[in-house]
Amino acid sequence: MPGGVVRVYGLLAWTWIRAAAQYPVSMVLLTFATAAVSMLDVAAIMVMFTRAPRIAGFTAPEVLFLYGTSALSFALADILFGTTERLGKHIREGTLDAMLVRPVSPLIQIATEDFSPRRLGKLVPASLVLALALPRLDVDWTAGRAVMIPAMVLAGVAIFSGLWVLTASLQFVLIDGHGATKSVTYGGAFLTQYPLSMFARDFVRGVTFAVPLAFVNWQPGLYVLDRADPLGLPEAARFASPAVAVVVCVLAGFVWRAGLRHYRSTGS
Amino acid sequence: MSVFPWVAWYALRRYTAYPLSSVAESVTNTAFAFMRAYVLLALWQARPALGGYDVTDAITFCFLTQAMIGPVQIFRGLELSDRIRSGDVAIDLYRPVGLQGWWLADDLGRATAELLLRSGLPMVAGMLVFTLRPAGPWALAAFALALPLAVLVSFAIRYLVALAAFWLHDDRGLQAIALVMSLFFSGMILPLVVFPGWLGGIARALPWAALIQVPADIYLGKRTGSDLVAALGFQAAWAVALLAAGALLTVAARRKLVIHGG
Questions:
Q1: At CA A127, angle to CA A125 and CA A132, rounded to 5?
Q2: Which of residues 26-85 of B touch A (CB under 8 A)?
Q3: What is the pTM of this model?
Q4: Residue B204 belongs to what domain range?
């Protein structure tokens, strides 16, 4: 029942928000601070463009467009599912067992944990940059391109959410693996802020076919910016993001269930 | 014998207790080193010799600084913050040794552990894929001085931030601001040599430059002779000033302390 899931998620998130609101000054400061931390990457991009008009053949508005779509997708996915990365900690401390006896999916319980308006701070720089970059893009706006923007952000949210849950599920097996899986989640967020043509070709193949980060914003972005694909993939790849998103999410759900089924609790 | 070496030794043991977890962290440090290297490679292709660095310097900078994240502790504050929030700091204050000295010893043990477990992989991986600038014997010797100084400055800053919890009660907002400063103004996000004009001037004078940019410059052999002495002096001066500020704040905090619920 998807409606029920959304309702339970909302209810639990609201409970955590009310808890966070007990310390209003701290909550406001944290929201600002969260926004400031996520501003850093865009600050770096701006500083780089003070030194060169084009980087890897892309202009500042084009890179900021990629940054905006990537950061917005990642921020939304992080708000929805980011705390699943704490699974290893819950397993170590035995708190996952407490979640299992409650009548709500443990995935929802972990995802809503510590849900606070401060997480919304991440959306501010991302949406601001996207709003500023879009009118500055030198593209011929057609209906298809305009529709592609929200479509790619939604697909990006789904891909990143799937990756959050997938990498969290790995912690059922590799309890200490959290440090390494961050290279997929946070690393993926960093990578997709830049044109993938900056990176080595084999690396781009890896993030296209193995971990499908290229479908967050690079492939659809090539369509919006009307650019040639350096890997020479067929035109259809540019519209494949929603399909890739569905595959990633289905796989994530499957792996999560498998992990939960094989969970044996810790200790003696 | 003083108790401090023991504090440092037990911190070293504690931080080497989960080696797999530390190695997992260094995998992510390495992945970011590669991504940052490709980004800088593209920038240096557009602007060769930017800020006095050549391409090899820029790439070496990425791997070296990713290797330094653990020991210099760019991302996390001190455990002391949690103890102030929970009230456990009362136990720390009962001890017959100074609060600052105790936590400094603990942090030096932690830094050594992270140097052993987290710094190797990024450097080795970088050398296998790219040509990194090898440090000469003098540069390496100077770097061996600069790295502990960087840890000292880093500790001094994190200690000040942690002590603020005595007044703020919930210090997470301040911790986040501190993270922004230490990421951006240390050179971790972009080398400070890329920063234009006045922004670069300010960034190079702030204490965060002593964490990453100055030791990296020393490793790359950018600071030699009297310039090297000035670089190490810059680090030492900030370390002394910030540690002194921390000592003063400790005195004030002792008077301020109210343990929650008691």
A1: 90
A2: 26-28, 30-32, 34-35, 38-39, 41-43, 45-47, 50
A3: 0.92
A4: 4-256
∠A223-A81-B189 over CA atoms, to 5°?
A: 65
The whole-angstrom separation of Cα B79 and Cα A129 is: 35
CA separation (Å) from A145 to A129, A138, A139, A142, A149? 18, 12, 9, 5, 7
Best residue in B26, B35, B179 for a mutation probing chain A (most A CBs within 10 Å): B35
Structure-token pair, residue A205? 């193949």
Give the pLDDT confidence of B214-232 residue by residue, as tens digits. Answer: 999 999 999 989 999 999 9
| 3-state secondary structure labels for all residues of chain A | CHHHHHHHHHHHHHHHHHHHCCCHHHHHHHHHHHHHHHHHHHHHHHHHHHHCCEECCEEHHHHHHHHHHHHHHHHHHHHHHHHHHHHHHHHHHCHHHHHHCCCCCHHHHHHHCCCCHHHHHHHHHHHHHHHHHHHHCCCCCCHHHHHHHHHHHHHHHHHHHHHHHHHHHHCCCCCCCHHHHHHHHHHHHHHCCCCHHHCCHHHHHHHHHHCCHHHCCHHHHHHHHCCCCCCCCCHHHHHCHHHHHHHHHHHHHHHHHHHHHCCCCCCC
Chain A residues whose beta carbon lies within 8 Å of the beta carbon of residue B177:
33, 36
Q: What is the number of residues in chain A?
A: 268
| Number of domains chain B contains | 1
Give a yes or no: residue B262 inside a domain: no
Q: Is residue B261 in a domain?
A: no
The Cα A257–Cα A251 span in angstroms is 10
CB proximity A176 to B under 8 Å: yes
pLDDT tens-place string over residues B127-177: 999 999 998 899 999 999 999 999 999 999 999 999 988 887 777 778 888
Q: Structure tokens of A109?
A: 């319980």
| pLDDT for the residue numbered B115 | 96
Q: Which residues pair with A54 in a beta bridge?
A: A59
